[in-house]
Amino acid sequence: MAIAEYEVLIGRDAMAVYQYLLDATNLPSWRHDVRSVKLVQGPADSKGAVYRKMVAGRSGLSIPAELEITNVRPGAEIEFHIVSGPATRWGGYYLSTEDDGTRVRFAMEAKRVGRFGILNRLGLLDGMLQRRVSSDVAQLEQLKDVLELQPAL
Asked: 84 or 116: whose pLDDT is higher?
């Protein structure tokens, strides 16, 4: 199992950041490993929505993964579960308003499943999974860059 979190202060109001994060089709604009995202089930941008994303695999091929929005609190919190893909992941974006903008914390927990499960139980893949999860949450810096370069509404 791997756990990581990262936080940044974004010079935008909490609702603008929340709306951008809630729309999972925005992931390719700030996550370098996400190639595309499309809604496959449920109402867009709400609890229960399921998105299929194509992520870059180690061999360069795209790997499908499905992301389900599991909890939302407008302007404050978005939680999700990656229900398919190379690792099961749970995570969330947690927002708080500050004088200079919005503090965003991206937290994620991951666990290998399937044929890699036995290797993970032996501890052989723990380091690799931890590095990947830490790298994923650190991409929050790119979100900051993307949102702060957009004109304020």
From this structure: 84
